[in-house]
Specification:
The chain has 281 residues and is of the alpha+beta class. It has one domain: 2,3-Dihydroxybiphenyl 1,2-Dioxygenase, domain 1 (Roll), CATH 3.10.180. Helix content is 20%, strand content 35%. It is built from five helices and 18 strands. The protein has an eight-stranded mixed beta sheet, with helices on one face. Its EC number is 1.13.11.2. It is an enzyme of class 1 (oxidoreductase). Keywords: Dioxygenase, Oxidoreductase. This is Glyoxalase/bleomycin resistance protein/dioxygenase. GO terms for molecular function: catechol 2,3-dioxygenase activity.
Length: 281
């Protein structure tokens, strides 16, 4: 989990808009295994360890369905501490009759599903870093069938919700122009490119993680930005290391014409696809 510690610039929280907060809370507690950290009539902060909010749900006063093609969230990804935890999640999903996808990415083993508003969710476990393969600073990743039977052999059937060591492993975004997104995240925020998938997808990270952020145009090339009240991504938060890093980022963002707004504990910006990024200490 050192990839999700300073000095890396990693995702700490994802904030999504939902159409029915009560329905979403039921799903995220009973199916995903979150606990409620704080809640009011239109907002809930969810946690795995009882202390840190990983996911924030917001129900706008006037809520709209998401159009079929917009920028925004492709999925957020919850990283479990171990393969055993992934096995227990698989067993739990089977008991609940959850429809899901599954993939082996060489660096990780992953499950995919959607929440009631079709917000994408990945739940995964990393393979040991020593098993990752790098070629010229590009990490080898694939999308192949997941050996679920092998994973289940490590489970103990003891599903008690998300383990306390769960973190927000990465976020994957739908963008309208990959070149513009690349400039924003690499020149503006200082990320390194670790994998390219042709001309339509890009994976970036700090500290040689397989990816802290994914970017793609698979269903969103030249698409409009997500509407203010449409269900989907509202903001996501990245951890800042120190004041010097923050000052450099602000200068770099302004240099490429990106907005910079001061907020409590850090600053806010927006990528060219309209995804709002909060950078906090």
């Amino acid at each position: 989990m050192h990839f999700h510690e300073k000095p890396n610039t990693y995702v700490t929280n994802v904030e999504i808009k939902v159409s029915d907060l009560h329905r979403s809370l039921t799903f995220y507690q009973e199916i995903i295994g979150f606990k409620v950290l704080q809640q009011d009539s239109h907002k809930a902060m969810l946690t795995a360890d009882g202390e840190t909010a990983l996911l924030t749900l917001v129900q706008p006063k006037t809520v709209e369905d998401k159009l079929s093609m917009t920028t925004g969230l492709y999925h957020f990804a919850l990283l479990l501490p171990s393969r055993r935890d992934l096995a227990n999640v698989i067993s739990h999903f089977h008991e609940k009759g959850v429809y899901l996808g599954a993939s082996d990415h060489a660096v990780s083993e992953a499950l995919y599903l959607n929440d009631p508003d079709h917000n994408g969710i990945e739940i995964y476990a990393d393979r040991p870093e020593s098993e990752w393969t790098w070629h010229n600073n590009q990490v080898h990743m694939v999308t192949e069938p997941l050996n679920i039977r092998s994973i289940l052999e490590e489970g103990d059937g003891n599903w008690l919700g998300l383990p306390a060591g769960t973190v927000m492993g990465h976020i994957h975004l739908s963008v309208s122009n990959l070149a513009e997104a690349e400039q924003f995240y690499t020149k503006g925020l200082g990320y390194d490119i670790v994998t390219r998938y042709g001309s339509q997808a890009l994976f970036i990270s700090t500290g040689r993680y397989h990816h802290h952020i994914g970017l793609n145009t698979w269903h969103s090339e030249n698409a409009p930005k997500l509407g203010k009240n449409q269900v989907g991504l509202k903001t996501f938060s990245l951890r800042l290391d120190n004041e010097e890093q923050a000052a450099t980022m602000k200068d770099n963002l302004r240099g490429i014409g990106a907005p910079v707004t001061e907020i409590v504990g850090g600053f806010q910006t927006e990528d060219p696809a309209g995804n709002v990024v909060l950078l906090k200490f």
